[in-house]
Design brief:
single chain
Amino acid sequence: MENYSIKNLSQGKKSGLSFSFMIVAYIFISFFGQPIVKAIFGAGSAFTAICSTFSVLAMALTIFLFAKLNQEKNLGFLHLKKCKSRYYVLAIGVSAGMFFGLGFINGVVAELFSQMGLNVNGSNISLRTPLHLFVFSISFAVLPAIFEECFFRGVVYGGLNGVSKICAIVSVSLCFAIYHGSVTQLVYQLIYGAVLCLLFECSNSIIPCMIAHFLNNFTVILIEYLDIFVNLYDPLIICIGLLILAVSVFFIVKEVIRKPKEETGEKIVEFWLPFGAFGSIVCLSLAILSLFAGV
């Protein structure tokens, strides 16, 4: 059996370990936290808002431990720095293009599983007052945008700097997608995760990724609060969205291709075996089991 010493692990293995540790921490916090929150607040909006922050706590803990183990004295490894204004514009384009151009995918997949008799019911968010809008905007848009980008693009993707871009992007995007625990959102999150990795790669900053992530989540919340009907199946809306997305991705990929990346020869298998695979299997298992809940 291979003997692992955390300090001597390759960057790829550290990224895989970080992902799996975060998943385990998330499950642990949820297992003990949900009954406590439910006993205090009941099963209403407060329960949903508070429990949504458990993944954020798991990521914050993992980032802290990652920094300690790597003896990082600042947050430079997260790439929280300013970048050129065009990357912020591209972030807005990515968010709008994904939502309006590919937002229909989740509904199509959900309908497919529903026709198969599987459970595709997600959590319902009740947005009746300005306070609800504020609280859910923080818990479902602001905090995820900050911590998910710090973790997935800063820690996990940043730790795969020595492997090929394609392998790193595909691997991190897959982890990002299955982490959300929804089989119906898997395709959408996979594509979005890849685009965010490309945006990070060309800007060398996670701030544009945070902006795109926030706008995507906040748009859903705001539409629900304002009770606006947006037909994401409308061919015109889809075409306009795809056009915006295509133009944004074109300029992003153009810069990524021109940007040289030093590869150390490290293989992506370093990320997956054994650590990354463990967290991924756990996430996929939970997501698949949720399809049969109540069936």
